[in-house]
Amino acid sequence: MRVDVNDKGKIVLIFGNRQDIDTRVKELIELRNEARARKDFRESDRLRSELAGMGITLRDFKDPHTGEPKSEIV
Questions:
Q1: How many CB atoms sit inside 10 A of residue 35's CB?
Q2: By 3-state DSSP, what share of the chain in percent is helix, strand and coil, each rounded to 5?
Q3: Mind listing the pLDDT tens digit for each residue in 14-34?
Q4: I need a labelling partner for 15 at 20 to 30 A (CA). Which of 3, 35, 55, 62 fits?
Q5: Beta strand 2-5 pairing with 58-62
């Protein structure tokens, strides 16, 4: 574990290596997308909060070409 400061001046704890963290973030985003598809918004919100705690902010929108719901990291 190490302590770092992100680009917004917030102190963050870093656990594991960068690849482990990236894999975990991808897993959480996929789980959140699955929860949204099931309309399990309580779980979706919980996962969004967990990601926010890791410094990841998601923006939800509809794809302008297909109308499909999408998420992106902001």
A1: 18
A2: 45, 25, 30
A3: 666 667 678 888 899 999 989
A4: 35
A5: unpaired
Q: Please give the DSSP secondary-structure letter assigned to residue 64.
A: T
Local structure of 34: helix, strand or coil: helix
Pull the structure tokens for residue 35. 């929860």
- Per-residue pLDDT of 38-55, as tens digits, reads 999 999 999 999 988 888
CA distances from 66 to 28, 61, 62, 63, 70 (A): 24, 11, 8, 5, 10
Position of tokens 């297909």? 66
Neighbour-count burial for 36-65, b at 16+ CB within 10 Å, e otherwise: beeeeeeebeebbeebeeeeeebeeeeeee
